[in-house]
């Protein structure tokens, strides 16, 4: 008797099918308000499901990881390395964006008056707030006055700060703390199980989010800004393959192997334009790949605030694009000032919806570009957001492996076993 073979499409392929169907549906239902409302509701529901489990995963994994680490000096060393690495990579990303913008001059070919304007009203208030935030404000906001308020608002950095302290406090109780540590460990396992269930809905969520984007703006919105869009994507690809690839090589990491391991999460973050959508699976996979729980639990969530490489590339490119479109010449000193402003402002925008767009709004006025100019690229912001989000996720995954290797907390045996499992699934 022959065994029956069941044909099963992998999640990655189902998400790609969802993207394709979303493009088709968006074209069919262009400017159809009823269809847009339905797709928007479907996409929002999926993102909300992901957001529902992000904080329980971050808190439970971080408490367990820090409690088991139990060494404040070691934590301080890991934290210092992590923030230094993040700042270095973000600076390189901004500098790369400025270099490419100066070489390709995407704004010089644009007639600013021929572009249709999008709405930026929803970002204006947040941008004004961001422009008033200095480094001191960012540091002061790290410490939460009310942890429950921070949890309800999803304010990641204050949550991480409190959770790290809680984990360290828990570690001081020795064996007495084991039941509570085990409880948090059980919570993390349950949350990862929920993640696997929710991820089965990813193709539907992706279909809806892509569909609503195309249905709202249409393919025609791309035409005047195709060159800028292509430059953005080529720069981000260069950053991942060449810049991140060289950094990975220094630490004996194969960047192509990492892309293969996290391909489903990269496709998901790309199609949803949401880093949070990929965070639970990245946290799970990075540990399966060989990174210790403590480092994975600290580096990945922190990176979602401090290591936004894709966003940094976009912000610097877009700022130069708009300056060129308005025929504003920027001196070397002005561009260096822009680099510093982007570095600081971007750190103050963690957790703000449309953060990259808000940062751009908050910084372009420092180089003389009218705030209204950002409206000219509002229509394609979602499409650029997809690419920069995927780069952000890739950058954080690489960071976790590098920090783990620097601390001798990367398990090569787990990595080999996990890669063998991936090959067996094919």
TrEMBL record:
It is a multi-pass membrane protein. Pfam families: SDF (PF00375). Its main location: membrane. PROSITE patterns: NA_DICARBOXYL_SYMP_2. Coiled coil: none annotated. The chain crosses the membrane at residues 12-30, 50-70, 82-101, 156-173, 194-219, 225-251, 325-345, 357-378. It comes from the Bacteria. The keyword Membrane applies. GO terms for cellular component: plasma membrane. Keywords: Cell membrane, Membrane, Symport, Transmembrane, Transmembrane helix, Transport. GO terms for molecular function: symporter activity. GO terms for biological process: dicarboxylic acid transport. It is found in: Cell membrane. InterPro entries: Na-dicarboxylate_symporter, Na-dicarboxylate_symporter_CS, Na:dicarbo_symporter_sf. This is Glutamate/aspartate:cation symporter. The gene is gltP.
């Amino acid at each position: 008797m022959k065994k029956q073979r069941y044909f099963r499409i992998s999640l990655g392929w189902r998400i790609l099918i969802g993207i394709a169907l979303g493009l088709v549906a968006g074209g069919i239902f262009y400017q159809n308000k009823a269809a847009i409302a339905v797709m928007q509701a479907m996409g929002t529901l999926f993102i909300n499901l992901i957001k529902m489990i992000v904080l329980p995963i971050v808190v439970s994994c971080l408490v367990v990881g820090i409690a088991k680490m139990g060494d404040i000096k070691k934590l301080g060393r890991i934290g210092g390395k992590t923030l230094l690495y993040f700042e270095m990579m973000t600076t390189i990303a901004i500098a790369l964006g400025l270099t490419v913008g100066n070489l390709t001059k995407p704004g010089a070919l644009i007639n600013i008056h021929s572009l249709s304007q999008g709405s930026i009203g929803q970002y204006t208030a947040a941008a004004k707030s961001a422009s008033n935030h200095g480094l001191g404000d960012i540091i002061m906001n790290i410490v939460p006055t009310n942890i429950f308020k921070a949890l309800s608002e999803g304010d990641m950095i204050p949550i991480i700060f409190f959770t790290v302290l809680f984990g360290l406090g828990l570690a001081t109780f020795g064996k007495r703390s084991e039941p509570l540590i085990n409880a948090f460990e059980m919570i993390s396992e349950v949350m990862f199980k929920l993640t696997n269930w929710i991820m089965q809905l990813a193709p539907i969520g992706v279909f809806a989010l892509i569909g609503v984007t195309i249905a709202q703006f249409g393919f025609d919105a791309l035409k005047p800004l195709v060159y800028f869009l292509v430059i953005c994507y080529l720069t981000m690809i260069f950053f991942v393959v060449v810049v991140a690839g060289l950094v990975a090589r220094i630490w004996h990491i194969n960047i192509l192997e990492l892309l293969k391991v996290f391909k489903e999460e990269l496709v998901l973050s790309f199609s949803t334009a949401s880093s949070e959508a990929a965070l639970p699976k990245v946290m799970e996979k990075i540990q399966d790949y060989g990174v210790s729980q403590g480092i994975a639990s600290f580096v990945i969530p922190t990176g979602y605030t401090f290591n936004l490489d894709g966003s940094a590339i976009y912000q610097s490119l877009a700022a130069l694009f708009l300056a060129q479109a308005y025929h504003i010449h920027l001196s070397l000193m002005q561009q260096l000032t822009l680099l510093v402003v982007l570095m600081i402002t971007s750190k103050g925008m963690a957790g703000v919806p449309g953060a990259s767009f808000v940062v751009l709004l908050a910084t372009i006025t420092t180089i003389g570009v009218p705030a209204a100019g950002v409206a000219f690229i509002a229509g394609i912001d979602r499409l650029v957001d997809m690419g920069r989000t995927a780069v952000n996720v890739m950058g954080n995954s690489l960071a976790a492996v590098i920090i783990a290797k620097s601390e001798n907390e990367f398990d090569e045996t787990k990595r080999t076993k996990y890669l063998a499992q991936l090959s067996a699934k094919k």
